[in-house]
């Protein structure tokens, strides 16, 4: 099993603005400019938080966007509005530990999901695209406990206005 974070942040490290909006991202570029399709096709499972799901839920054809993966949403809700997304009400570290060891897992978003996985050395790969945007405030990507975590830079790519950095855990 490999656990990946794949996502985009601003130059100042924010996943979303202070109101959890991603307008800055949508106004910066297009997913077709990246290697998203290749990445997604290598994943078996997605895991996201409820706020990330709420943002994805706004997209057209949500059922077809994540059709090739088993999709989990960490939430207290018993049901979700989109087919193909399974609500899970448990601690993220324990949930990931019980998943099939032969699967690739994409942590789609949510710093409250990423932080405990980083705290427990469970993120194997970070693929992060950086948008040329400064928000000044917002929802930061990294909120894990203070502890040294080392990754190795494997590759750097440019997609339009985005810089993509590919890291693996040492």
CATH architecture of the domain at 36-124: 3-Layer(aba) Sandwich
Question: Tell me, what's the shape?
Answer: globular
Q: Give me the number of helical elements.
A: 6
CATH topology of the domain at 36-124: Dihydrofolate Reductase, subunit A
Q: Main β-sheet: number of strands, strand sense, barrel status?
A: 8 strands, mixed
Mean pLDDT: 92
Beta-strand content: 25-35%
Task: Please estimate the helix content.
Answer: 10-25%
**What's the helix-strand series?**
EEHHEHHEEHEHEEEE
Report the strand count. 10
Strand order of the largest sheet: 5-4-3-6-1-7-10-9
Give the oligomeric state: single chain
Radius of gyration: 15 Å
What's the CATH class label of the domain at 36-124?
Answer: Alpha Beta
Helix/strand-derived class? alpha/beta
Instruction: Please report the distance between the alpha carbons of the first and last residues.
Output: 16 Å
Poorly predicted spans: none
Write the layout of secondary structure elements.
Layout: E1 2-10, E2 14-16, H1 23-26, H2 36-41, E3 45-49, H3 50-56, H4 62-65, E4 70-74, E5 85-88, H5 92-97, E6 104-109, H6 111-119, E7 125-131, E8 139-140, E9 151-159, E10 162-169
Parallel strand pairs: 1-6, 1-7, 3-4, 3-6, 4-5
Antiparallel strand pairs: 2-8, 7-10, 9-10
């Amino acid at each position: 099993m490999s656990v990946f974070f794949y996502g985009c942040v601003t130059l100042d490290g924010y996943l979303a603005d202070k109101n959890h909006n991603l307008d800055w991202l949508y106004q910066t570029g297009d997913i077709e400019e990246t290697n998203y399709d290749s990445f997604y096709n290598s994943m078996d499972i997605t895991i996201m938080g409820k706020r990330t799901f709420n943002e994805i839920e706004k997209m057209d054809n949500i059922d077809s966007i994540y059709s090739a993966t088993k999709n989990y949403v960490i939430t207290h809700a018993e049901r979700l509005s989109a087919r193909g997304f399974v609500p899970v009400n448990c601690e993220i570290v324990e949930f990931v530990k019980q998943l099939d060891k032969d699967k690739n897992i994409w942590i789609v978003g949510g710093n409250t999901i990423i932080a405990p996985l980083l705290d427990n050395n469970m993120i194997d790969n970070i693929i992060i695209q950086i948008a040329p945007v400064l928000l000044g405030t917002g929802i930061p990507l990294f909120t894990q406990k203070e502890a040294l975590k080392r990754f190795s830079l494997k590759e750097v790519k440019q997609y339009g206005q985005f810089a993509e950095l590919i890291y693996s855990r040492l």
